[in-house]
Amino acid sequence: MARVTLKNVTKSFGAVEVIKGVNLEVDDGEFCVFVGPSGCGKSTLLRIISGLEDTTSGSIEIDGVDVSGEEPSKRGIAMVFQSYALYPHLTVRENIGFGLSLAKLPKAEIKAKVDAAAEKLQLTDYLDRKPKALSGGQRQRVAIGRAIVRDPKVFLFDEPLSNLDAALRSQMRIELTDLHAELGATMIYVTHDQVEAMTMADKIVVLNAGKIEQVGSPMELYNHPVSPFVAGFIGSPKMNLLEGDVAKGMGCSTYGVRPEHLEITEDGIWGGKVRHLERLGADTVVYLDTKEAGSVVVRTVGDLAVKVGDVLRVRPMAGKEHKF
Amino acid sequence: MSRRQLWTGIAALCVSLFIFVVPFVFILFMAVKDKRAASKLEFSWPTEWHLWANLIEVVEARNYMLLLAYFNSTVITVGAVSLIVIFSAMVGYILQRRHSRWNSLIWAGVMAGLMVPPAVVPTIWVLQNLGLFKTIHGMVLIQTAYGLSFAILLFRSFISTIPRDLDEAAIIDGAKPLQIFFRVILPLLKPATVTIIVVQSIAIFNDFTNPLYYLPGKENVTVQLTLFNFQSQFVSQLNLLFMNILLITIPPLIVYIFFNRQIVAGMTSGAVKG
């Protein structure tokens, strides 16, 4: 069992409070993703769990044991950094085995563990290379290997895929998900990319300005966002969030409808000229300048016969709108 | 390369060849001549080669003083350079990584070490009171103190190019602060370390004034001091004096020839980001 529990965790840097009272429960074996815009405190929260930063107040429990004042190495965690943070002067084998050699394990045991991790990550052929002779994806795998050999209760990932190109990123997403299924360990993953959050998470924690906005499964957040912030953050393209007279007419202060929940019909309630078109192949994203609701984004079928300057009318699908 | 650049390049090479190589060749020629030929002090091809005989005579002079000098200079150089590298890397690391209100004070101290010229008489007074005057280890400490500031400056700017993530990865891996320094940071400082080793070892090995002031005594002689001691004795045997010069010039020359590439690399790395 490796539950991670945060109780009223706060963190201040000088007079600036970056984490404002976070309570969170991450279950054993769960893949939990912290997501939020830059500066929302998600990385700081992860560093607090790892022990690289102290809490200002509050406590962290791993496995029911309070580890708040404990050294990072005693917490049973392993961390993968955004920059990979491989030791450039050591070979892949030494990089992966570094923690074990510090713990003064017998050489044969280190070798066995490193070989097993390398096999799992397809790094066996690269064990004697230095990190600079590896590609980005391989370096990422070495960083993960270094985490695996420590056999941690909790894996922490700090934006591990943001330095990779798009194709490699989607491949690594799948590999990480597979790894999670194989190891069954608790994983906490920080990203600013909502696609990564949606595709990998069992549980998403949306953070905003040092506070938790909402916690839930990907589809829960997609279908039932509790605030305009979550609604706007989860889903791509972004949800249309309308304020002012339009929202008032609908009986709320912010009216939200996702681009994919707007249908193009003759008798739509909002109408206007097409300002911009994005052809994605499978679907088309239409940017409409409507008279009634201002700028609205619509996601529709791929081969829609429309061009910039055409006039379209759209209507929100019944029951798919969000009122805040 | 245009024709003009080619010719100016060749001209510059000729001038530097004249300035740097001619004196060296002069030393070499003088060192192999016999006593009479050398006394003329001419830049001429030696008629007879007495390389080996002159060498033996210089080495044996004053009860093998030159060998003792080599030993002393080597001990001082190795000792001082080792201390400089270890301590300045440590100080540079802490100054760069750990921010405290003492930093500016420590930094002012480091800068003072670079800017304030050392005073001889008070230093001797301190050494006498500490019982370090006229001792080899006293000399090692003095050379360390003189070399520390520059090395700290170089190491600090170099360490700022090493990402902090590496320190943190090592912490997660369970490394203690000293282990982080010795197993992760110090190996990565190699380019700066090589620069420090070469520059400082040549400076210390070639130092004349500091051993003259702080290390008097026959048994404490260093290589540069042998020149001073032999000058009066060999005034009528210039061939031996030049042989002595040749012998004590060779070690630094070898170091320069082999390490000049690394010196430049270490000097310029960390120059952009500081």
**Tally of helical runs of chain A:** 9
Q: Describe the biggest sheet of chain A?
A: 6 strands, mixed
Q: Helix coverage percent of residues of chain B?
A: over 70%
Oligomer: heterodimer
Mean pLDDT of chain A: 91
Low-confidence stretches of chain A: none
Task: Summarize the structure in words.
The complex is a heterodimer of chains A (324) and B (274). Chain A has 324 residues and is α+β, with helices and mostly antiparallel strands. Chain A is 27% helix and 32% strand. Chain A contains nine helices and 18 strands. In chain A, the strands form four sheets. In chain A, strands 6-7-8-3-9-10 form a six-stranded mixed sheet, with helices on both faces. In chain A, strand 9 and strand 10 form a beta hairpin. In chain A, helix 2 crosses helix 3 and helix 2 (92-102) runs parallel beside helix 4. By secondary structure, chain B is mainly α. Chain B has twelve helices and no strands. Chain B is globular and about 70 Å long. Chain A binds chain B through residues 50, 52, 71-73, 77-79, 81-83, 85-89, 98-99, 102-103, 146, 150, and chain B through 163, 165-166, 168-175, 179, 183-184, 187-188, 190.
